[in-house]
Amino acid sequence: MSKFIFSSPRKYVQGSGVLDELGEYLPALGGKSLLIADDRVWGIIGERVTASLKKAEVPFLYEPFKGEASSNEITRLAEIARKAGTHVVVGLGGGKTLDTAKAIADELKQNVVIVPTVASTDAPCSALSVIYTDTGVFDTYRFYDKNPDLVLVDTQVCAQAPVRLFASGIADGLATFVEAQAVLRSHSQSMVGGDPTIAGMAIAEACEKTLLTYGYSAYTAVEQKLVTPAVEAVVEANTLLSGLGFENAGLAGAHAIHNGFTAISGDIHHLTHGEKVAYGTLTQMVLEQRPDQEIARYVRFYRAIKMPTTLKEMHLENESYENLVKVGALAGGKGDTLGNLNQHLSPEDVANAILAVDAFSKTVK
């Protein structure tokens, strides 16, 4: 029997300058807060965050995030929060910081507030975290009973981040509808354990449409550190639409192949999440035999926002075929989502598609 589930954050707030309102939301969520951010992020927004919480008379403890969303880091920070007697977990920064904040809140059964400082991933709104080992190798997905209680996105802050990260969010978002269609076609389940909902599919489709319509103009605006209506639309697509879309409509090949890339070492790991997902999306499109014209459109768009479409740009031009097979094996492993694309894909199928993307991309003018 089919079961349809739709999951979303309790509240989503987006706009230029809304970071200064953070403190106003915390008393209703529990008051005393553990704030986690890496040193770089805290150096950029720490004073504003501190001022906002002090104005709202919210007691807090700041603890630096060490950089990896691993079980050990989650345990370390949860113990600090437990000893300090905090009641709310606030994550500020990029995807791994935010995934860690959600995990800490789950450990402590507390409310969680997510404050992305870059529009670079679809992590903020979801009720899951991607967990890695201490050395950065994909470990597992961790699922939660509820989505974040508040997602607060200051578009002015996001526009000050490197444009490469903004473009990475666009690339991550563009995987949403591609993967959702595969999940629907294969009668697989979404990330919340149900069939893809009409709402989830519609949101995923709106995400793709928004990014292909406004993505390039928003990219050029963020190059100049500007917030425009196109930037607001793309930040919403990167964060809210992509987040709700992937969670309620599901993941398939693009993210599984991204995770598979952790099976190999080298300079590929200097790339962002979105850059690797971009190549994973093209690889999925090859595996599902999408029309050449459609794949070429994505290749041209990725190039316009400086996302990788060749093995050289992925730092994989000298990688052995055997290592690409390892990527395919990890992507198809238990607990990942390649089976939502096709349960019968072999590691060699994935390796061949990775190579085919490179060959095809080089011919696109």
Automatic annotation (TrEMBL):
Name the record gives this protein: Glycerol dehydrogenase
Pfam families: Fe-ADH
Reaction(s) catalysed (UniProt annotation): glycerol + NAD(+) = dihydroxyacetone + NADH + H(+)
Keywords: Metal-binding, NAD, Oxidoreductase
EC number: 1.1.1.6
Gene3D superfamilies reported for this sequence: 3.40.50.1970, Dehydroquinate synthase-like - alpha domain
Pathway assigned to this chain's UniProt record: Polyol metabolism; glycerol fermentation; glycerone phosphate from glycerol (oxidative route): step 1/2
SUPFAM superfamilies xrefs: Dehydroquinate synthase-like
PANTHER family named among the record's database cross-references: GLYCEROL DEHYDROGENASE, GLYCEROL DEHYDROGENASE 1
Record-linked InterPro entries: ADH_Fe/GldA, Glycerol_DH
